[in-house]
Amino acid sequence: MFATTSTSFEPASNRFATPLPRALRASAETLDWRDFCAGHAVSGSIRLGTWSAVAAHDDLVDFRATLAVGDRICAVDATAVGPLGAATAMLHSLGVAIEIIGLHQQSVCGDTVTFVECDIDGRRAWGMGIAADPALAGVGAMIAAANRLR
């Protein structure tokens, strides 16, 4: 008796309940989940260590993080309305001039998947973050986009 293996292809798009942003649809249709994640949830020289948030005044939140940029490990903080604004300010303070252009977020298998389109010096890329906490999924997506653009 011969063992059989499945060679059927399942596109990454099958994981999402709603359509992805237009710029991501083609790769989601032509790549499997593993390859799609490898292309969009990119690790690199910018890495997130710790992340915390504490309510501040006037509907603001004090965010603190440990970020690594290359060999440097930095404790950074920012006061902002939300985690993406804080992450943007933190990255700017470390010399990564990043701007958010687009955002897409949805639930997949109990986790939050966030896609953030970012711009650095006129170049754009989408990053992807997956986490149980929507804030961490967004910050992860920003860092992935920054790593794709560096």
Account of the protein in words:
- This protein is α+β, with helices and mostly antiparallel strands and 150 residues long.
- It has one domain: Double Stranded RNA Binding Domain, CATH 3.30.160.270.
- The protein has four helices and six strands.
- Strands 1-2-3 form a three-stranded antiparallel beta sheet, covered by helices on one side. The chain has a three-stranded antiparallel beta sheet with strand order 4-5-6.
- Strand 5 and strand 6 form a beta hairpin.
- Helix 3 runs parallel beside helix 4.
- The model has no long low-confidence stretch (mean pLDDT 94).
- It comes from Williamsia herbipolensis.
- InterPro entries: 2-isopropylmalate_synth_dimer, LeuA_allosteric_dom_sf.
- Keywords: Transferase.
CATH class: Alpha Beta
How would you describe the shape? globular
| Total strand segments | 6
Q: How many helices?
A: 4
Secondary-structure element string: HHEEEHEEEH
> What portion of the residues fall into strands of 2 or more residues?
35-45%
Q: Between the first and last Cα atoms, what is the distance in angstroms?
A: 51 Å
**CATH homologous superfamily, by name?**
Alpha-isopropylmalate synthase LeuA, regulatory domain
Instruction: Quickly give the structural class.
Output: alpha+beta
Report low-confidence residues grouped into runs of 5 or more: none
Helix content: 25-40%
Largest sheet: 3 strands, antiparallel
Spatially, the strands of the biggest sheet line up as 1-2-3
The domain tally reads 1
Mean pLDDT: 94
CATH topology title: Double Stranded RNA Binding Domain
CA-atom Rg in angstroms:
17 Å
CATH architecture type:
2-Layer Sandwich
Organism: Williamsia herbipolensis
GO molecular function: 2-isopropylmalate synthase activity
InterPro entries: 2-isopropylmalate_synth_dimer (IPR013709), LeuA_allosteric_dom_sf (IPR036230)
Domain 2-isopropylmalate synthase LeuA allosteric (dimerisation): 54-150
